[in-house]
Amino acid sequence: MYAGNKAMREAFGDALVDLGAENKKIVVLTADLTDAVKVTAFKNAFPERFFQMGIKESDMIGTAAGMAIDGFVPFTTTFAVFATSLANQAVRVSVGYNQANVKIATSHGGMCVGADGATHQSFEDIALMRLIPGMTVLVPCDANEAYKATRAAAEMNGPVYLRLGRIPTPVITGTETPFVPGRAVTLRDGGDVAIIAAGMMVSAALEASDRLAGEGIRARVINMHTIKPLDKDAVLKAAGECGSLVTAEEHSVIGGLGSACADLLVRESPVPLAMVGVQDTFGESGEPQEILEKYGLTSSDICENVRHVLNKKTRRDL
Amino acid sequence: MEEKKKTVLKDYEALGDFALQLRRDTVRMIRNAGHGHIGGALGLADFMAVLYGGGMTSDPSRIDDPDRDRLVLSNGHTCAVWYAALARKGFLSLESLSSFRRMGSPLQGHPARKMLPGIVETSTGPLGQGLSVANGIAMSMKLRGSRGRVYCVLGDGELQEGQVWEAAMTSSHYHLDNLLVFINYNNLQIDGPVDAVMKIDPLIERFQAFGWHAVEIDGNDIPSIVETLEICGNKSGLPSVIIGRTKMGKGVPFMEDKAEWHGSCPSDIQTAEALTALGLSEKFQDFPLPEAWKAGETA
């Protein structure tokens, strides 16, 4: 298992090599990004089950659909923005409508692709993948969870979107932390407010929880590693027990985790909710930390939003 | 087994009759539905007749056979003629043809895999996607050592989609000699002649430049189709494409070569006229239709 700081895509590459040895049906396709998506080791270990597809993502995903239809378990690999926006029609029909057993795995999800800037940042991908009927959407929070999520994706029958980050992020889960798709993990208990986070924002949520504790606020932290199907029970339980929620994601506040929770809450159990995420804007070049700060994706932003929803909750109680 | 297959393939009169039956079914299906894509489907009838008349292995009792030949109809809108062929071969009931394009029918307006598992290999409709999936199936079959072949039909206008050329690179890069593409080249798309909308020629040269074995034939000439399929089946290391020059609306004179028949439905009178043109003969046994429509047929 991993510790310290580790990129999720590295763990993904490791998991694929292990899976490849165990399951001869695993094949990997890539679109000229072998090393960036960390599948070089798989390529070297299983060259006959590795397919270089060139810079043509729609064709890669359609080809993977064909291989899945014929019985293989393909992982397609490229950057998040290319697999989801560029190749969306192939994902929708060749994978989604076909119910093809394709695993669309991506690195470079979120804003933290860094200096490549707005064109390469991916903050609509979760929204786009949520829209595909039957698509499971997995957003692991660290390298250990990325390893488990990769294995879980391979074991599931049906299309899966697996979103991974590029930069090394803190490892916050261990061997013993459970990973069951569709079942959120409560990392920290608390009854004043619940922070529901996904991806690398989970570690920011833990940090926020620590800081809030200093102010006497007990914040529950929930790792929502599966955006679809959403763990409705966990969200509703948090709403009922804490009375206010903050979501945190390295994604647009439109269509992602925050939207999914809001959609559920407004139907079932409305409580004050704030969303930490990218507002309706494109990004820009910069160092990951600079981007996180400028676009409001830090633990401070979470704390601020927590205070905001607590204020609303109090006013509502009066 | 092999001998029998060849006998079927070379019986040109039987194949011709089969094609006429598919055309009759296509006209009646679309009339019954009230809408559908008739022109391209009629032009494709001869190729479908050869495929399902023995050109490809197809056995409805063995749809799970991992070595079966596959068909990907990338220009999914022409599916009426495919459904007709499937019904005539026993993959579907003849009665089911009357449900085409209706609510709850497995015969969706564009082929849907989930409705017909083991028969429709991949859902198609949005143009440009089928060849990628056909490649994937062909690559997978090679990887597991299957003897089966993958046939893929593309429309001519469809070649304007960039993904087709992405896929064409993949086919030759991975030496998919178990893949055979047929282009239903009737030179008409919705907005008019293909050349006028967006030129796709020189097609043979373009496919050859992409590393394909490419031939052009009269796509409505059954002996040519049969002969070309045999030649293409023996091209080692290369994917093959047959550019089939077909006639939109082939077999129904008032529809032939007219872009407006891409997606129009004939009236009752036009339907009767079309069926007359396609041969009123005892050898054709048209599929049963609901009573309500039969009444309208003679009106």
TrEMBL record, chain A:
Cofactors named for this entry: thiamine diphosphate
Assigned keywords, A-Z: Thiamine pyrophosphate
Top-level taxon of the source organism: Bacteria
A Pfam family reported for this protein in Swiss-Prot or TrEMBL: Transketolase_C
Domain Transketolase-like pyrimidine-binding: 6-171
Keyword Transcription regulation: no
Family to which the UniProt record says this protein belongs: Belongs to the transketolase family.
The protein, known as: Transketolase
Originating species: Marispirochaeta aestuarii
From TrEMBL, chain B:
CDD domains: TPP_TK
Keywords attached to this entry: Thiamine pyrophosphate
Cofactor: thiamine diphosphate
Residue stretches making up the Transketolase N-terminal domain: 24-284
InterPro entries assigned to the protein according to its UniProt record, in alphabetical order: THDP-binding (IPR029061), Transketolase_N (IPR005474)
Superkingdom classification of source: Bacteria
Record flagged with keyword Mitochondrion: no
Keyword Oxidoreductase: no
Family assignment from sequence similarity: Belongs to the transketolase family.
Name the record gives this protein: Transketolase N-terminal domain-containing protein
